[in-house]
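Lab notebook: predicted structure, single chain.

Context: the supervisor wants predicted structures on file for every construct in the current expression panel, including those that have not yet been purified. This is the next one on the list. No modifications to the sequence; it matches the entry in the shared construct table.
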Amino acid sequence: MNQPPTRTSHKVLDRLGLPAPLLLGFVGILIFMIGDGVESNYLAPFLVNSQGFTENAATLTISAYGIFVTLGSWLSGALSNVFGPRKVMWIGAINWVVFEAIFLGFGVHLGIQWIAVLAYVLRGIGYPFFAYAFLVWINLAAPAKQRGTSVGWFWFAFGAGLPTLGSFVASKTIPILGEEGTLWLSVALVAFGAALALFGIRDRTHAGPVATGNGTVLQGMAQGLSIIWREPKVTVGSVVRLINTAPNFALFIVAPIYFVEVIGFSQAQYLLIVTIVYTANIFANLFFGVIGDRFGWRNTVMWFGCVMSAIGLVLLYYVPLAVGPQFWITVLCWSVFSIGLAGFVPLTALVPAIVQPSERANALAVYTLAAGLSSFVGPVLVGVLGGSQNLQATIWVFAAIYIIGALLCLTLKSTEDPGQAKKSLPAAQQHSAKA
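Prediction complete. Output recorded below exactly as produced.
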């Protein structure tokens, strides 16, 4: 029987920045994203080598999947406003399991390629619905004083699962279960994580629709989109979110060429560097959530996110060029950038705090749409700027974009932001708050 948390455990979780009623949701997100991440580093070669896909067909399939991920990223918030985050999580979990089963059972096992493509692409809305609807739930349930830490825990669980632990699970199970068997294991992991979150969270206070009134679903979705011009600061915050990871997705295209062919690392060394620096990013997500609740959400994003990322990019290019293939020096330089990426974590708390509670799901809908678009914009910018053939200029353009992001942060104000709330208090209240 699922016993409610004791008062002592509530205090412990509160100190950790975790909303006690949602604890099993965080665990469920971790397990769900491990299942989703199992395929991340071997699906494309699996489709080509085992399923008879051409390389172009596999690339187009995964690209189309990315479009549905972007669509799901927006709809997760818009539909949470209408149906409530818990129902959207249900839709996402069922979508993932059903279409993955069709993909594997009919597309892969029976070798029907068009079914494989269709099912995999439609599965794209699954994880954004499940994960980002829970992010809406967190923003509604967590008190302002710990909201930055709470979303830090979310990104910690999300990033630890996809792709880090998911890829680790695949590396251990493929030799035992085979590639197809490992994909079936991912279905079990996703189903278990979803069940743990959806049945384990007993407190449904913030699980229902956010919007009031009797509007239709389409009207609710239209309202979610219209916030782009109704609340310009939400749009600015979403642009900052786009800036957050667009250069990172771009880096994945040019970095292998730069570090292997120009600097002189082996492919194995390069992959190990990537593993180390993005493991650091996972833990930094949690760290900057805590820092945001103390230093201020906007201050953390502006200085540790935008400025630190800009510095990290420049170091990442010039230092290895000067010293050659020095493993740990390169790890250190890249870690400045990867940790800077985590400095944007409090933005997830700041953007919805700009608007009224009834609009927060809509604000997060635009925010997560920007997160999805960054995976598209980054590679496009690489192509426009000349890619690895013009890498020095590309690095400086991206560094400048981060500085522009820092300037945009100056417009993002909320009385719930710990850094700004303290400034608005009289001196005596500030002293008592510290005490």
